Amino acid sequence: MIPPGANVAGETPGSTQAPPAASSCPQVLRKRADFLRAARALRQTMPGFTLQARERAEGEAEGIRIGFTCSKKVGNAVARNRAKRRLREIARLVLPTHGRAGWDYVLIGRPEITATRDFAAMQADLKRALAKVHGSAR
What we know:
Layout: E1 27-28, H1 32-39, E2 42-45, E3 49-55, E4 65-69, H2 77-98, E5 103-109, H3 119-136
Parallel strand pairs: 1-4, 4-5
Antiparallel strand pairs: 2-3, 3-5
């Protein structure tokens, strides 16, 4: 155990560590109620997935929140997990720049397509879906 104030990894005495970098990753939705609220809001179907989006009420939560779901229609557990991994990755790449703070998004995998569609095409689909959802929300 390192005592408080001891040098760690070559720090010089009196130096201050930089604060941890703020995470640009959105929070993940975990509660069923959040998924149900998103299901009642805006919806945009794309070839590789369906996007559900809703603007949260003031003070409900901060930042961007995202949820992922794939039903058994997508396939067995291996296929569902592969589809969700791909959805998580496109969300990680696209949402920090194209998503809006104060919004919840849910990406729903589609049978056979989500796991096999070209990755760049899925990224473009998410950008287009976000533009449509935010354009209709004004």
